[in-house]
Amino acid sequence: MILASANQQTEIEIIYPSSDGEPLAETYVNLYAILVTLEILKQYLQGQQATVLADQFLYYAQGFPKLRVAPDVMVIFNVVPGSRDNYKIWEEKQVPAVIFEITSEGTKEKDTGYKKTLYEQLGIKEYWLFDPKGEWIENKLKGYRLDKEVYEEITDSRSEPLQLRLEIESELIAFYREDTGEKLLAPSELAQALKESEEKAERLRRKLS
């Protein structure tokens, strides 16, 4: 496993950038998948000691700001909830538990090579690859779970750290709670459900008045 703390030198002159000016995603489809996944998981973990970050630098070696990666979505447990400009493992004392990469033919080599190896070495419990356009993953979704420090392919579509079951719905990942089977609603679905609930309440009010 890669150690987050490299040395004890001071960081007064070391800058850890929060952006490199690169676009968030290659296409709108990929961008939408990132943002919806982010919002669904943020809502699901609300009230827990956890945070969900999207396309933010993950620094894994103190004193070496060039040693970084920007996962599309990462979930970290046992940390203070809320956003960060970037995430430094040696400060937070926790590595992400789950990482999602919204992949494509153009990022396949990096996602299955460099990133998979790095996440395995860092001790990321689960690594999920979602190919919303189906460019190279036949079923669009492929996951890996750490087993004795080595990634093994996930065959049951379950995320153990999240306690969720993952399915594909068109160009998005659908998440279902393992305890109740309930689907976690996307932002647009939440808005529609709220609207329908308000309309139902209004009809009931009129009926009773």
From TrEMBL:
Keywords: Endonuclease, Hydrolase, Nuclease
Pfam family of the protein (one): Uma2
Keyword Hydrolase recorded: yes
Record-annotated Putative restriction endonuclease domain positions: 40-164
Signal peptide segment: none
Superkingdom in the source lineage: Bacteria
MF term (GO), any: endonuclease activity
Keyword Hydrolase appears in the UniProt entry: yes
CDD domains cross-referenced by the UniProt entry: DUF820-like
Name under which the protein is recorded: Uma2 family endonuclease
